[in-house]
Design brief:
The structure holds two protein chains of two kinds. Helices cover 0% and strands 50% of the residues of chain A. Chain A is built from no helices and eleven strands. Chain A has strands spanning 4-7, 10-13, 18-25, 38-43, 50-54, 58-59, 67-72, 75-81, 89-95, 102-103, 107-111. In chain A, strand 9 and strand 10 form a beta hairpin. Chain A is globular. By secondary structure, chain B is mostly beta strands. Chain B is 0% helix and 48% strand. Chain B is built from no helices and ten strands. Chain B has strands at 3-6, 10-12, 18-25, 34-39, 45-51, 58-60, 68-73, 78-83, 92-97, 106-110. Chain B has a six-stranded mixed β-sheet, with no helix packed on it. Classes of the chains: A mainly beta, B mainly beta. At the A-B interface, strand 4, strand 5 and strand 10 of A face strand 5 of B.
């Protein structure tokens, strides 16, 4: 199974600060069809996850453009350019290139 | 508006089975796989498996092959997951998702 290693596990930020979360895969997530199926999710307390970024860097409709995704192969990054209070929660990367699909362990974003 | 409406919370006895539902609306049900995800209290996300609602084809994570059974009813745009031989390890919230949209989750509590 593909292992996704997310770092850091916890992130403390002030409002307005820019932060990045890393997601490293144990194998390339490039599919034979040329797509890389790596998504980023945010789960706020008591809520289901919501999709932020799909296919590495594509912003889901309605998601603020302070969120951005980048990377390729095995190394991926989610960046938040100017944290806002509503961004607090747990961020997960998830891959759906290789079954069984797998999630990173999560990164908890807290206010400093 | 896309909505994945899941059934209500369940309290079940050890050794029993439970079937939870996920009714889709706002999109063509057969156009997207439906995935199921497990989240134990204060833990991360685990992929259980997915079903193609168009033809009923399923793929399961190895550890859920004897635990979960996924089905879909095209006539009612509803996906189902049955969990069998329940133990305390199955106490969790279960989400359905087509990766873009997520259900609100069903809390299943296994207790005598």
């Amino acid at each position: 199974d593909v292992v996704l290693t997310q770092t850091p596990p916890t992130l403390s930020a002030t409002i307005g600060q820019s932060v990045s979360i890393s997601c490293r895969s144990s194998q390339s997530l490039l599919h034979s069809n040329g797509n890389t199926y790596l998504n980023w999710l945010l789960q706020r307390p008591g809520q289901p996850p919501q999709l932020l970024i799909y296919l590495v860097s594509r912003l889901e409709s309605g998601v603020p453009n302070r969120f951005s995704g980048s990377g390729s192969g095995t190394d991926f990054t989610l960046k938040i350019s100017g944290v806002e209070a509503e961004d607090l929660g747990v961020y997960y990367c998830v891959q759906s290139t290789h079954a069984p699909y797998t999630f990173g362990a999560g990164t908890k974003l807290e206010l400093k | 508006e896309v909505l994945l409406q899941q059934s209500g919370a369940e309290l079940v006895r050890p050794g029993s089975s439970v079937k939870i539902s996920c009714k889709a609306s706002g999109y063509t049900f057969t156009d997207y796989y439906m995935h199921w995800v497990k989240q134990r209290p204060e833990q991360g996300l685990v992929w259980i498996g997915r079903i193609n609602p168009a033809n009923g084809n399923t793929v399961y994570a190895e550890k859920f092959k004897s635990k979960a059974t996924l089905t879909a009813d095209k006539s009612s745009n509803t996906a189902y997951m049955q969990l069998s031989s329940l133990t305390s390890e199955d106490t969790a919230t279960y989400f359905c998702t087509n990766w873009e949209y997520w259900g609100q989750g069903v809390m299943v509590t296994v207790s005598s």
